[in-house]
TrEMBL record:
Residues 12-148 form the DUF985 domain. It comes from the Bacteria. Signal peptide: none annotated. Transmembrane segments: none annotated. InterPro entries: Cupin_DUF985, RmlC-like_jellyroll, RmlC_Cupin_sf, YML079W-like. Pfam families: Cupin_5 (PF06172). This is Cupin.
Length: 151
């Protein structure tokens, strides 16, 4: 079955923000990567190399999309930017208790996902048809530190 086509307004926003598809779902663009590099020797032993001190992305989830369960080795901060509210669910394990955080107007504006916690997100359907957030990862994001669940 083919994915539902996105409304023209959301396609225009994706184009204007120069976003590309993200492996976990939705669309993203890296907007910042620190020039400061943290050597592997300064990081916990489970890091496989040097990392940027921090990174940031814009991340857009249309109402018809969601972010699948995934985790990153570093802490991740989520900041609601515009659009509809976002439901962010985090858990230390995939089969353990989960915490749900609502980001956006009339809710929290930011949330922190601890290192190695599983996380997933979906927009709450509303007038905008999408949720736009900024995500900051410290130490900086590297796909070597990213794990996508198959559930």
């Amino acid at each position: 079955m083919a994915p539902t086509p996105l409304p023209a307004e959301i396609v225009k926003l994706i184009d204007r923000l120069q976003l590309q598809p993200h492996p976990e779902g939705g669309f993203y663009r890296e907007t910042w990567r620190s020039d400061l590099s943290l050597p592997q020797s300064a990081l916990p032993s489970d890091y496989t190399g040097d990392r940027a001190a921090g990174t940031a992305i814009l991340f857009l989830l249309p109402t018809s999309h969601y972010s699948r369960w995934h985790r990153v080795r570093s802490a991740e901060l989520w900041f609601h930017q515009s659009g509809d509210p976002l439901e962010l669910t985090i858990s230390e394990t995939l089969d353990g208790a989960a915490q749900t955080i609502f980001l956006g107007r009339d809710n929290c504006w930011q949330a922190v996902v601890p290192p190695q916690y599983w996380q997933k997100a979906k927009p709450i359907a509303g007038e905008a048809g999408y949720a736009l957030v900024a995500c900051v990862v410290v130490p900086g994001f590297d796909f070597a530190d990213f794990e996508l669940s198959d559930i």
